[in-house]
Amino acid sequence: MKKAQQELPFRQWGGARRGAGRKRKSARPNVPHRVRGKFRNGALHVTVRIRREVWNLRTHRCFRALRYALARGCERFGFRLVHFSVQGNHMHYIVEAPDAESLGRAMKGLEVRMARALNKVMRRRGPVFADRYHAHLLTSPREAANAIRYVLENRVVHATRNGDPAPSGVDPCCSVARQDCGPPLVAQPRWWMLRVGVLRRTGPVLAA
């Protein structure tokens, strides 16, 4: 009598299972790796986040390093950094860019400069940024004005969310803080949205 052939269980690889896959760089959800939307001569609100092991960006040494990088990367490939705000673990920018490709090239260069400067201060090597930058296209003067206000008052926004007293005065780690010397950290806007349109909503103080 022939013996019945036994089926051997094959080990299953892949598929969704708990604990599988590459571990996240941070606890926050990653920015989706999808093709960024096309635009032409756009104004954008850009957000970048840093890794947990990187020092507080608002400390004197770190912000001084960032100033060095900002001065050299604020205007490249048609990209212009018009406003910025540096918080403890992230940064906000208001920028102009002719298209998505130019934005990507300029942001890559800016992040490389920042990473090198920060790593030099911390005497370390390795990545500084937690994930890809997030860019939101601003489509109206009202939206652009609200984005500028959010960026420049971001310190107050976070204090309010945390239940802390709102700090007074101009944030020393933003683009409208007084700069006594050195090269400019931002570029002047050239296109209508940030040069003219926001004036109707914010006045000259926030419009740079």
First and last CA, distance: 92 Å
CATH class: Alpha Beta
- Strand and helix order: EHEEEHEHHHH
Shape: globular
Number of helices: 6
What Rg, in angstroms, do the CA atoms define? 22 Å
Largest sheet: 5 strands, antiparallel
Task: Estimate what percentage of residues fall within beta strands.
Answer: 5-15%
Using the 3D structure, state the CATH architecture. 2-Layer Sandwich
Going across the biggest sheet, name each strand in turn.
2-3-4-1-5
Task: Give the total of domains.
Answer: 1
Task: Examine the coordinates and then state which fold CATH places here, giving the name of the CATH topology.
Answer: Alpha-Beta Plaits
Question: What's the number of extended β-strand segments?
Answer: 5
The CATH superfamily turns out to be: Transposase IS200-like
What is the structure about, briefly put?
By secondary structure, this protein is an alpha+beta fold. It contains six helices and five strands, in the order E-H-E-E-E-H-E-H-H-H-H. The protein has one domain: Transposase IS200-like (Alpha-Beta Plaits).
